Sequence to fold (147 residues):
Amino acid sequence: MKRIIILLTTLMMGLLSLSGHAESTMLDLVAKDINKTCPQYVDEYTTMLRVESTATDFIYSYSLDNELFGVYEEFPTAIAELKKMVLEEVRNLYVDGDEGMKYFYELLAEYNRGLKYIYFNEEATDSISVRINPAEMKAIVFNGKEE
Fold:
């Protein structure tokens, strides 16, 4: 009986560690696939350079036109406005986006990950960032519903 309990405990610990590894691997694969298409020109001011999956966030890195970047440096309140715009865009993509994007946001919420956007100036010598924390991601995905 003791051997069975030890075996079951070992099996359960292995499964738990695999599930934690699976979430990282899945998000790492998403990052790897996106990075194959980088750099991506978003608009005349913005280029997506790369993405990265970390233990706390899924990170998008962009290069921003120096003139536009200067606005954010000169007016710190503009960064708060940028966060509002990004948060609203993520909400809209979750509600109206394709199934792949919805699933991606659900993974982030389920795995307690945030979404971070880092904007570099053209020389990559300075940056600003906006982060949607895990609680905000969950609010978008679960919209007040129980998880």
